[in-house]
Design a protein that fits this description.
mainly alpha; 2 strands; 61% helix; elongated
C-alpha cells in the first residue's frame, strides 16, 4: 500500500488517508449534526470500536501496519453483516433503558463484547 492513497467506508463516515493526515472537522461542526439521532451516533461509535479493536489485534499479531490493519478490519466488518444485529441491539437497549445512562452504557459494553470480531 506504500505510496497509494486509500479510502474505506464504515457506515456513513469515510476514513480517508493519503499521506496528508486525517481530515478534521471544522471548528463549527458538531458530531450530533452528522447523525440524525443519538442512537445512530452510538451505533456508529460501537462500529468504530469494533473495527479499531480488531485493527489493534491485527497489529499486535504482526505483519500489518496500521493502515493495512484498518482496511482489513473495515472489510471484515462490512463482510460480516453484523450491522443489523448491532442496530437491533442498540435500539432495544435504548427502548429498555431509556434515559438511565449507567444501564445504557453497561448495555453498550455488552453489545461491543458480544460482537467482537476477534474471538
Amino acid at each position: 500500500m506504500t505510496g497509494m492513497p486509500w479510502t474505506c467506508m464504515l457506515s456513513s463516515l469515510a476514513v480517508v488517508d493519503g499521506y496528508s493526515g486525517m481530515s478534521t472537522l471544522p471548528g463549527s461542526a458538531t458530531l450530533l449534526g452528522k447523525f440524525p439521532t443519538v442512537q445512530s451516533m452510538v451505533g456508529h461509535g460501537v462500529a468504530c470500536l469494533l473495527v479499531f479493536e480488531h485493527s489493534y489485534s491485527l497489529i499486535q499479531q504482526g505483519g500489518h501496519d496500521w493502515k493495512e490493519a484498518l482496511v482489513l478490519s473495515v472489510n471484515k466488518y462490512n463482510a460480516s453483516h453484523i450491522q443489523t444485529t448491532i442496530a437491533k441491539a442498540i435500539k432495544a437497549a435504548f427502548q429498555h433503558h431509556g434515559k438511565n445512562m449507567a444501564e445504557l452504557c453497561d448495555e453498550m459494553l455488552n453489545i461491543i463484547a458480544g460482537n467482537k470480531m476477534c474471538k
